[in-house]
Design a protein that fits this description.
This protein is mainly α. Among the domains are: 83 residues, no CATH class; 50 residues, no CATH class. The chain has 8 helices and 4 strands; from the N terminus they run ααββαααββααα. Strands 1-2 form a two-stranded antiparallel sheet. A two-stranded antiparallel sheet has the order 3-4. A hairpin with a 5-residue loop joins strand 3 and strand 4. The longest helix is centred in the N-terminal third of the chain and has 14 residues. It is flat. It starts with 10 loop residues before the first helix and ends in a 33-residue tail after the last helix. The model has no long low-confidence stretch (mean pLDDT 85). The structure holds zinc ion.
Length: 210
């Protein structure tokens, strides 16, 4: 597969992206000019989703291949940002499709007999239908919180180590290779698999807590 090289996204671009995305609050119409300028400079949008121009309620993912494929239909990035409609709105406006009926295939043989074969041809999804499916799957995924700050833990603090080890072994690598007494968490660890047993493999002493 051909490798696609994207324009480098430096710290300045990242800061601009966050600023524009925050200002819009999920609505690109609020600061459309900034969105357009950002796209022209970086070839991507400041957010992974854009708001529906029709219902102004539903956001749709618009990045990567989907963006590349959808953009030409709107002629320009302004067109895409101001005219794109979510799948629900598109469906509501589209004429009702005729339901597909399976028609058995008739095969006329040379000897004059006719056999009917059930038509088992696969139905393929259009690219739009594939994007709709992806959107539905994305809606079920847990949300990523960019403002989440990692909680600092102190390995020398008993309470911290208890908190860390009460549900899982923190160093399964040491547990498996050398045994718990060689682990820096050993003293305060409350993990269910904790054991005093040493394994055969000798550990480098640097692993152990001083
Ligand atoms: Zn809509």
């Amino acid at each position: 597969m051909k490798k696609v090289y994207r324009k480098k996204f430096d710290a300045k671009a990242k800061a601009a992206k966050v600023k524009i995305a925050k200002k819009s609050g999920g609505d690109q119409f609020k600061n459309l000019k900034e969105w357009v300028a950002f796209y022209k400079e970086h070839e991507r949008l400041p957010s992974t989703k854009i708001l529906c121009s029709s219902c102004k309620k539903k956001a749709t993912s618009m990045f990567g291949d989907n963006l590349k494929r959808t953009l030409p239909r709107f002629g320009s990035i302004e067109g895409l940002l101001t005219k794109f409609e979510c799948s629900d709105c598109r469906k509501a406006k589209a004429p009702v499709k005729e339901k597909k009926v399976k028609v058995p295939k008739r095969i006329n043989s040379e000897d004059g007999s006719i056999t009917e074969k059930s038509n088992s041809a696969k139905e393929y999804l259009t690219l739009d239908e594939i994007e709709d499916r992806k959107e539905k799957v994305r809606a079920t995924l847990p949300k990523f919180n960019p403002d989440f700050k990692p909680i600092p833990y102190d390995i020398n603090n008993e309470d911290d180590v208890i908190e860390l080890t009460k549900t899982a072994c923190q160093r399964p690598d040491i547990f498996l290779d050398y045994g718990c007494p060689e682990c820096p968490f050993y003293q305060y660890c409350v993990c269910a698999v904790k054991s005093d047993k040493l394994r055969n493999k000798k550990s480098p002493n640097s692993l152990r807590r001083k």
